[in-house]
Design brief:
By secondary structure, this protein is of the alpha/beta class. It is built from nine helices and twelve strands. It folds into two domains: 2-110 and 286-296, ATPase, nucleotide binding domain (Nucleotidyltransferase, domain 5, 2-Layer Sandwich), CATH 3.30.420.40; 118-281, Nucleotidyltransferase, domain 5, CATH 3.30.420. A hairpin with a 2-residue loop joins strand 9 (134-140) and strand 10 (143-145). The termini are close together.
């Protein structure tokens, strides 16, 4: 039995998968602010899963940031302060008396969709998160590619490809650089762009709905977004040549993206590359826990 835990800034989602990949145990609890309490919360969930299923479980964990391959400590954690610099994996293994596999939450999303989701059967799957930020993970032959720094597939803090003069130098990012792709393609980035051009503060859902209804200003904002996303995906395709790109996150629900972005990215691709599919995720909010469980194969 494989147990996956998706640890976020506000909640911990857990699910156990049986041999057929069906969920046979689920749990949701608030994420404790204290580190020791977090370890206890995970330990309690594991005990509950084994008590309810009657089986010993393997434990896979997805969370923000990643374990440094060099130090074994958590790095690049943005929304769970207690995790940064901690040997989270080792501490969990001590508490649970078993090995624990841990990966970035975007990696878990990609692994879930590559294993038995929208990318099932594909040789290479690039999972892309479009939400409050932009993240990603890369899977080849159902194996997660972590990279030398456990950061493979992360693309949000690269520069927006082929920028126009109006996009240079770009807004200042929290990482200290200007023009990061995340500042244009995240949900807040889309809202910022619309506000800067029109002076109107509108949420993403309203921008997309009004663009669909023919509102000229919102349509122009959405057109810019489609072109920028097409450029970003073309740059990734040029380097990685994935068979499937699967979208997750809040903006993945925008149906128009799946037709318009591939139609636009052709003008940015290097040579003839028409084999990449661009699809919505299959497992939705469950992808995080399912991917964490699949860290055990």
């Amino acid at each position: 039995m494989k147990l996956g835990l998706d640890i976020g800034g506000t909640k911990i989602e857990a699910a156990a998968l049986d041999a057929a990949g069906d969920i046979c145990f689920q749990r949701r609890v608030a994420t404790p602010a204290d580190y020791d309490e977090l370890l206890t919360a995970v330990s309690d969930i594991v005990k509950d899963a084994e008590r309810e299923t009657g089986e010993r479980v393997t434990v896979g964990v997805g969370c923000p940031g990643a374990l440094s391959p060099r130090t074994g400590l958590m790095q690049n954690v943005e929304n769970i302060e207690g995790l940064l610099g901690r040997p989270f994996n080792r501490d969990l293994e001590t508490r649970l008396d078993r090995p624990v596999r841990l990966a970035n939450d975007a990696d878990c999303f990609a692994l879930s969709e590559a294993s038995d989701g929208a990318g099932a059967g594909a040789s290479t799957v690039l999972g892309i998160i479009l939400g409050t930020g932009c993240g990603g993970g890369l899977v080849a032959e159902r194996k997660l590619l972590r990279g030398a720094n456990a950061a493979a597939g992360e693309w949000g803090h690269n520069s927006l490809p082929w920028p126009s003069l109006a996009e240079v130098p770009g807004p200042l990012c929290v990482c200290g650089k200007r023009g990061c792709t995340e500042l244009y393609l995240s949900g807040p980035g889309l809202q910022r762009d619309h506000a800067e051009v029109t002076g109107e503060e509108v949420d993403v859902r309203s921008i997309v709905a009004r663009a669909h209804e023919g509102d000229a200003a919102c349509r122009e904002t959405f057109d810019r977004y489609v072109d920028r996303l097409a450029r970003a995906m073309a740059a990734l395709i040029n380097v990685l040549d994935p068979e499937v790109i699967v979208l997750g996150g809040g903006l993945s629900h925008i149906a128009a993206l799946y037709e318009r972005v591939p139609a636009r990215w052709n003008q940015y691709l290097a040579g003839a590359r028409d084999g990449t599919r661009f699809v919505a995720n299959e497992h939705g909010d469950a992808s995080g826990v399912r991917g964490a469980a699949h860290l055990w194969g």
